[in-house]
Amino acid sequence: MRKSLLGWFAIFFLWIGAGVAWAQREKVLALRHSPFNDLKVVQEGYERVLKVRQGKVYVEESRCDVRRPAHLLHQYSRLQLLGSLYPRNLGRGLVVGLGGGSLSKALLAQFPELQVDSIELDPEIVKLAHEFFGYHESERCHSIVSDAREYLEKNDSTYDLIVLDAFDGLEIPSPLRTVQFYGLVKKHLNPGGVVVSNLHCRSGNYDRDRVSLARQFKHIVAYQGTGLAVVVAAPQELRADRSRWSSNWGFPLEPLLHLEEKTAHFDSTVRPFED
Q1: C-alpha to C-alpha distance for 206 and 237, rounded to whole angstroms
Q2: Which of 26, 70, 162, 259 supports an S-S bond with 223, CB 3.0-4.6 Å?
Q3: Is 88 within the bounds of a domain?
């Protein structure tokens, strides 16, 4: 009798587990094609995910909790937000690479006086960010559909914070990783402004990316995350203003600060990327 009951309990829990797995599997909300990408938006429980086709598979580009659209879920995006502690002033920001708008939404939510421009090459990504990820235009939030380098070459706007997060898979697009491009970015910084660059350590070009960035910016602080480094760079000495952080960020500050790079984890003798 006891064995029979145990068997029924086992079947019951397996049935419950199968039901949970079924409920949590991804639900496709949208499929889009553009000249730049094949895109998919899926729902996984309370989380909404933007995916981009890489070869035969779709890889995650952005993710948000629909209950808290401005809350940052990933370590790398939290490290990018950490860069907001470094500018002398924080009145205007530029995010290069929109995705689902995660970082742009977080910056707008945490700094009520900040205006954020977001540059995105693919207009379909901008549309999906509006439709599914709680990203909206306002007096403080502007989307720019453009090649980032062309925009910076033609526009004279300046910023206190510039975040570089444009990727094609694991790689930064070639025109956006050269010494000359970083020089162009530097021209768009206000006095006391900083650049924050997201770099993939697993890329074979990581060392050259670090060297290219260092050729234009004398002062650098880097945070080593899982498979990535978020690099804060500026012409002036860098000091974090911790008073800008608040518990409203939704995650603790100290664990992120402990990821600060203590020694150089790259080969500083390699050749930088040049145009």
Answers
A1: 24
A2: 259
A3: yes
